[in-house]
Amino acid sequence: MLRKESGARSGARGARVSKQAGAETRERLIEAASLVLRTEGYAGTSARSIAKAAEVNSALVFYHFGGVDPLLLAALDHSSERRMAAYREAVADARTLEELVEAANRIYRADLEGGHITFFSELVGASIARPELKREIVERSEPWIDFVEETLERVIGGSPLARLLPPRDLAYATITFYLGVNLFTHLDADRSRTEALFDLAGRLAPRAKLLTMRFPRRRTPPAGGRRPAD
Q1: Do residues 151 and 100 make contact, with C-beta atoms less than 8 angstroms apart?
Q2: How many Å apart are CA 92 and CA 182, to the nearest integer?
């Protein structure tokens, strides 16, 4: 009886160790996939190159993720989760368009230095020739559009600017611009043109203050056209 209990405990410990080792391997593969894609590009990313960076057998890429693309998408999800939390914190205190532009500038610089946009851009480029990858990328873009829309609604909702440029449309335009400007950064060696765009946005934001003011709604007069007595 004691031998059976001892064997059961030993088996349980072994299962926990195996599960922990598997989780650690997945984490190493995700980190390695992100690194290889940023430094080697999609064309240079393979199960072998990822496994080499992770210092594991390349067969583990397929064992844990089923292939290179699913692993890259898992790495994108991992990065997006952390970035979304950081972005929400970055814009939480923004109450004006000017403050929002300042926050966007900080986010841009952090993304550029961290290589997040390079990672996403490589997957977008690869998806042009891979419809199955395109569907996955589009699906993962929606939460970001929702996030920008929610932020814009909080800052400019109910203003003349929001009526002129609905937050949902502006959110999509913002994501498109942000992706484009970060792609162009790779061609802009000293980043002078990219920096100039953010400087321009910073100068325009205060001038748009009147468009972002929320005016009180007029009270509808009662039937007959006469206003109620004070």
Answers
A1: yes
A2: 23
